Amino acid sequence: MHLAWGSVFWEEGQYDSVMVRGEAAARLAEAHQSPLYLAWAYHLIALIHGRQGNTKEQLAYYQKALPLWQRGGDSLGLSSSLHNLGTLYYDQDQYDEAEKYYRRALQLRQPLPYHERTANAYEGLGLVAHARQNYQEALQYYQKAITLLERAGDPASLGKVYQKMARLFRDQKEYGEALRYYQRALEALEQGGDRLGVAQVYNSIGFLYYLRGDYGQAIESAQKARAICEQLGAQEELIRCQINMARAYREQSNFTQALETLQRAAQIAEQIKDKSRLAEIYAAIGTIYRYLNQSSEAIAYCHRAMSIWEELQDLENLAEINSYISRVYYEQARYKEALSHIQKSISLHEKIGHQKGLADAYLKGSLIYIAQKQYAEAMKYS
Fold first, then answer.
1. Does pLDDT of 12 surpass 60?
2. Residue 88 and residue 54: Cα distance in Å, rounded?
3. Among 264, 321, 273, 272, which Cα is nearest to 298's?
4. How far apart, in whole angstroms, are the C-alpha atoms of residue 372 and residue 370?
5. Cβ contacts of residue 111 below 8 Å, gap of 6+?
6. Are 279 and 302 in contact (CB under 8 A)?
7. 121 near 141, Cβ under 8 Å?
8. Cβ neighbours, 10 Å, residue 113
9. pLDDT tens across 204-214, in order?
10. Rounded to two decimals, what is the model's pTM?
11. Cβ atoms within 10 Å of 158's Cβ, excluding its own
């Protein structure tokens, strides 16, 4: 009963209530020594921790569920937890771990008559290969997934794989092939009735046009996506529409329109309490104010972004925003502030081991000293 109510609350977005029900179900399962019921409870709790951004707890609960699925003899449940672990590690760029769990999920799913689940495991392996830039290997995994999904007659899932194929070609700068697969994704998702998926593809097509330098088409595609998102109330994807449009407006030097579009995105991110997106938008607004030669506003918004990334302990973005703030101060000949921020950027890049960013930060540091005619200090940054 607790798990049933948990599913209801999940559909309604009442995640705190889902957590309460999941924990109650876990206590009941422990009392009755029911491994499968306890595995489902842990699986549900893991999902909620994921929604709340508690990655460490989410990993722990999926791991706790694994031996319980095995004791209960539920191969399908076990494969779901394994696959979700693979996805968690993939999202953290831990590709060796991700591949390990996706392969374990695939081994369990291949003998089962659930083509969609097996295809999903191939997709995961394709994502890992893509992230490693093993494009031919990724293509083979995606093609295996497509074959299974065509056999299963699942157009919505098929559309998702076509999207991944399109991104694969996009990242190889094969834009014609990428567009062809995006069009196939649109057809499949429309057939499957996945309106949000359709919006996501229009957004991706818009970004593809942006990469090709066709900013008018980029805006038009993002506007199509926005119209669908507004109908669905899909706030997260709506933010992505606004960001994509703003990026294209910026390249057209339409800074006023870019700023209005980003400010609308910020309002949505604040409403849904998406701090990570909000920081990204604040940083983008800062760049627009810099283009408008409004340096004080640029710095203010960059500091807003920096505060959020400090709270989230996002070291990579902190390193980049400090570097950018340093650049704005440098352009104003405010060298003391510029040096302070570039030193923070250097320290952060060293901490995360980002060599390219570190080299760039050292170069900027040397330029700051050169501007002050402190050549001996500049040499230390060379």
1. no
2. 11
3. 321
4. 5
5. none
6. no
7. no
8. 8
9. 999 999 999 99
10. 0.83
11. 25
